[in-house]
Amino acid sequence: MIHPINATVERAQRALPPGLHEVPVGMHRRLAHVQPGLTPLAVRAQHLSLVSTALTQAGVEHFVVPGTEDTSSAIGVRDEQRGRVAQALRSLFSRSPGYIQRKVPVLRTGEPLQLGSREASWQGLETVDVLRAVWFQADPSGHLVYGTEYGCDIEFWREEDGRLLPPRTNRGASYLPVHGEMTLVSPHRFSRLAPPQTDAPQNQRRWGRKPQRSGLPTRQEFVCTGADEITFPIDVVYTWVDSDDPAWQRRRAEASGDVFHEESASAGRYINRDELLYSMRSLHMYAPWVRHIFLVTDDQVPHWLNSEGEGITVVSHREIFRETSRLPVFNSHAISAQLHRVPGLSEHFIHFNDDVFVGRPITPHEFFLPNGASKHYPDTVRIPMGPILPEDLPHEVARKNVRALLEGRFGRTIIDAMKHTPVPLRRSVLEEMEREFAEVFRATAAARFRSRTDIDVGTCMYPYYAYFTGRGVPDTIPYAYLHLSMVQLSKKLDRLLKRRDAAVFCVNDSFTTEDDVADQEALIHPFFEAYFPLPSPYETSAATR
Q: Where is the region Disordered (predicted)?
């Protein structure tokens, strides 16, 4: 877990070297190295490289192992090398203070950490099958400490009947030949948090890459593309509006005569608290495998956005709507029904609203299967049964319209709504849906505000259509939903910040009025800054207020 810490902790009580702080972690205080800008993937790679370099310098043969965890790493050494490993690591810890944790082979609850520089910490090593090297890393903001889950494990492999046997399960092999070819790989190679790797021989041929000339040693048997790996690119598409823009406000006022329900034009639907900035930070921190970000707007650009930066493209509504005569459009149903038209978009992509965030390190497997199928996340909230009623909210109307269409097409009735999560989508499936339901797609695109002819394409129609046609599957995801008008919001935000256990979360503000904004801003902006303190490459140096 990533733990919040007190930013005022100083190096007082003890004479610590520069760059080291003593910070509270759970019930203990730990030595932590203070470094700016460290993401989870970078911390993992740093610790893996530290251990590999120390073993190389000590002449200990070793190989990186494809472990079963994505934030920690693993290195295999022969069982008879225990003494030399201990000596090399103890020397490393004397230069770079950290801890060891014994895993025998499964971590016991409450397994203590011991300072790696102490001789006593290495006693009884002959009974340990797996040893974890841990360095705590703290961000200078005082809001993040990367802890034991980012450690590097040293596995002691034993020789038996001409084979090397691992002390525990890994993602690569149940055993290895005693002698085998070695190769070099990136420190990110065996983490699914990283972008798709290209150092497997077949991928080198496919992309014309030269073999890896530097990196960390591993066994050649591990360098392959497994059936459980996601190798296709995944983009993210954001939809965003700047409600503070006077030109946008004029356009909205001129078009507001089309509103059929007050919620359709609610100010809360458009209030800008710079959520997008923090949502993009969450991607940078916790989903570095995203290939490209597309920001779909009504010819608007956030004041903080580095629009010339690598990895992001701003897309105007004029580029994705076929019939531009109805623009401007203020209907999220209309906009989401056009996202598959984004130029340069990959087949697999994820739609993010700007009020949705990634809450912890997350892999693409949370959104897609390795065979390309997309996932969706049914809620316990039901779509109201029966015909459309005058009192139905616009999103209920759009879902009822979808239900009628799918009943006619598949003879099956949809019941569950979807959670307010990022929405995994496939461009080809959306194109197929538009061809099959051309008239309703056209009517939705033509509705400037939410209307009674709308369909909810992304969060209702697509999940079920993909499921009924064998290209989507239901799943669950660790998730939190916070509404800015909920009771004890401050306590719920504090709890989410402390635990950081939600893979994704939504901070929603529908029905917020202009009178609520100041109080909510005083609460939510410090939360965002504490949760996502690391600037992303998508923002300028003067991004935050």
A: 194-216
